[in-house]
């Protein structure tokens, strides 16, 4: 704060720091509050100090109305700040209870005095706490210098306030009744309907006026509902209701930085003149409490709304990387992250590793690739999140296929008859004659089963410290766990206490998954002697531009993803090179620009009856479902492919004037440019 705009602490009207002097100052301040133009100034102070008592809010407003954050001299020092020389403190009231010994009658179990031998009630010495208050001195942050302290609303919250839809959604969340928009004939901007229990806001208002009206009417719904007032034995005239509603609305709007220039309280002096001091203080305390509650509730709702909005935006932009991060055990920290400084918070099972920080999403991608290379059980999860097309089976299917010790967690599918026993313990299930059927469940998570890991350990993890990529509710009664340790498959029902065995559940689940062995037990993944795959920048002439030969299918798909679609050579593709000695040997496109050539390939008997080609088609279909679910129906027409080839050929010959050359043989993974 510069010397020119530096403010000073205003002395209280009655000198002295004894409680009598302070209370006299308060009485004087309250009278002035309602008979001058300082009412709005006080409401602004109340908005900033809504967790303080009315008396202390009043004292701060009287002495330093521009204060934003106050605490004691020692507290400022503990926060790395120092009160500047010559600053005058702000006097407020703090509780200072003290203890003393007191004679108390001894009572029996019926709360009657016990008589002594002298015929008088027995007494004993007991320690009691006596309420007491004293004056203390605090200083505003503007009176200090030193380490910076966050005093304003977080950037996320500020952004949410500027977003009309988000702020309106937050108001609707905290309103005790529904809010709707309609035509209103008179001059009112809105009203609370006591009978219909709803708030109606006039259509066509500006965004700012709509928010102010919504807050004002929400106060009426909270404080002035007829049934609520009758239950509390409270009566208020119309002017008191308006003073309270408009004052709370002003506080809330002021707290969130909404324009308050059109607020005025010309009737406040008339309202206060006909009331006792006690009654005025009671109304002001209601205003303070209600404004404080609404500010806190709106802050919480706005943070939730904006975080959800940011999650959606982040997932739209970096969805696969976000999924992979969570698979690695970390969550994007929305509060701490900013451009050039990305902070990742560990989930419960990775707490010991601490927070991670990166400068860019490219750095995160590199870290994830390193995590995959480490070869741990986490590596498998990350690899699946980044490159799902590499895997023929889900984690649940891997468990049934006996690929290591694993477990899977199942929740009742509420769209099935199983919802009848949702959260029911086994005793109730048996009493009602309900059969636990695997068809009524869905797998929500599956992972590696560590050595010595027991059911109780899993229960604790999925209640107290769930993995970041676990999106379901905490483990509860009616959930099912299947474990496969060393080929021993067991299923358990999560009961109220412990677990109940389910002998048939695992068998039922395996039938649902239809687990079958690989066709002819052929290793399609690594058998490059019969078929290999390539990724090329140009489907028509896979010699031009970027080309990768002699790959496995997952390698080809991964290379395909890295080729920019806007390259000039044509439509990028993944293809296969058949080497089975048949008349159909050679190179053929399998997928062009995200569209599988299934119909064309199946129109040729040699491809339709070839297990290698059919396996590749199935795996690319699965890849497209998982990686590109929104791509339009695949190109299956040979005519369409031919048209694209002709367009690509004309484009290449006319614009690039590239001479065609035979495709040279390359080593596996080598690039041709």
Automatic annotation (TrEMBL):
Region of interest (Disordered), ranges: 628-673
Entry superkingdom: Bacteria
Record keywords: Coiled coil
Segments forming domain YodL-like: 407-505
Biased composition annotated in UniProt, kind: Basic and acidic residues: 637-656
Residue runs in coiled coils: 288-315
Organism: Dorea acetigenes
Domain N-terminal: residue ranges: 19-139
Coiled coil found in the keyword field: yes
Basic residues bias locations: 663-673
Record protein name field: YodL domain-containing protein
Keyword Cytoplasm applies: no
């Amino acid at each position: 704060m510069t010397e020119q705009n530096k403010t000073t602490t205003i002395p209280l009207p009655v000198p002295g720091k004894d409680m009598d002097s302070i209370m006299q100052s308060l009485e004087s301040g309250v009278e002035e509050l309602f008979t001058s133009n300082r009412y709005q100034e006080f409401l602004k102070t109340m908005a900033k100090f809504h967790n303080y008592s009315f008396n202390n809010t009043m004292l701060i407003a009287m002495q330093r109305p521009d204060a934003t954050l106050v605490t004691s001299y020692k507290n400022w020092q503990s926060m790395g700040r120092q009160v500047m020389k010559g600053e005058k403190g702000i006097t407020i009231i703090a509780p200072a209870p003290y203890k003393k010994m007191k004679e108390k009658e001894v009572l029996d179990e019926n709360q009657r005095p016990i008589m002594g031998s002298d015929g008088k009630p027995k007494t004993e010495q007991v320690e009691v706490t006596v309420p007491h208050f004293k004056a203390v001195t605090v200083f505003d942050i503007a009176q200090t210098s030193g380490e910076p302290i966050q005093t304003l609303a977080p950037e996320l919250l500020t952004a949410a306030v500027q977003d009309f839809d988000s702020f309106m959604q937050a108001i609707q969340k905290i309103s005790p009744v529904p809010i709707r928009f309609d035509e209103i004939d008179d001059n009112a901007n809105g009203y609370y309907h006591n009978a219909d229990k709803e708030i109606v806001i006039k259509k066509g208002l500006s965004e700012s006026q709509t928010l102010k009206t919504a807050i004002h009417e929400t106060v009426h719904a909270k404080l002035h509902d007829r049934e609520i007032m009758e239950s509390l034995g409270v009566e208020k005239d119309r002017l008191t209701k308006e003073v309270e509603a408009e004052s709370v609305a002003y506080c809330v709007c002021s707290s969130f930085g909404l324009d308050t220039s059109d607020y005025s309280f010309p009737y406040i002096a008339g309202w206060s003149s006909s009331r006792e001091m006690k009654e005025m203080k009671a109304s002001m305390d209601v205003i303070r409490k209600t404004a404080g509650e609404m500010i806190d509730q709106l802050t919480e709702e706005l943070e939730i709304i904006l975080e959800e909005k940011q999650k959606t935006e982040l997932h739209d932009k970096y969805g696969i990387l976000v999924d992979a991060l969570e698979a690695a055990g970390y969550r994007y920290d929305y509060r701490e992250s900013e451009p050039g400084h990305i902070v990742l918070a560990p989930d419960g099972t990775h707490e010991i590793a601490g927070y991670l920080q990166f400068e860019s999403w490219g750095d995160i991608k590199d870290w994830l690739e390193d995590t995959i290379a480490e070869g741990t059980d986490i590596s498998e999860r990350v690899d699946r999140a980044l490159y799902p097309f590499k895997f023929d089976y889900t984690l649940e299917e891997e468990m049934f296929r006996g690929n290591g010790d694993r477990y899977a967690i199942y929740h009742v599918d509420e769209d099935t008859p199983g919802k009848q026993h949702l959260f029911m313990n086994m005793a109730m299930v048996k009493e009602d004659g309900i059969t636990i059927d695997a068809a009524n469940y869905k797998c929500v998570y599956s992972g590696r089963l560590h050595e010595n890991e027991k059911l109780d350990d899993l229960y604790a993890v999925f209640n107290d410290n769930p993995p970041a990529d676990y999106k379901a509710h905490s483990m509860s009664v009616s959930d099912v766990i299947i474990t496969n340790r060393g080929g021993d498959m067991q299923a358990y029902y999560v009961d109220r206490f412990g677990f109940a065995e389910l002998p048939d559940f695992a068998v039922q689940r395996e039938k649902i998954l239809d687990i079958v062995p690989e066709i002819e037990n052929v290793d399609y993944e690594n058998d490059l002697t019969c078929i290999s795959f390539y990724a090329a920048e140009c489907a028509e002439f896979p010699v031009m531009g970027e080309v990768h030969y002699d790959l496995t299918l997952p390698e080809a798909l991964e290379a395909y993803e890295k080729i920019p679609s806007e390259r000039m050579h044509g439509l990028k593709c993944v293809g296969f090179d058949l080497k089975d000695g048949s008349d159909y040997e050679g190179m053929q496109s399998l997928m062009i620009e995200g569209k599988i050539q299934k119909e064309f390939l199946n129109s040729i008997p040699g491809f339709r009856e070839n297990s290698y080609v059919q396996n590749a088609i199935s795996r690319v279909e699965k890849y497209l479902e998982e990686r590109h679910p929104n791509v339009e129906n695949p190109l299956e027409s040979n005519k369409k492919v031919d048209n694209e080839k002709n367009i690509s050929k004309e484009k290449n010959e006319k614009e690039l004037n590239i001479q065609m050359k035979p495709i040279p043989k390359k080593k596996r993974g080598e690039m041709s440019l």
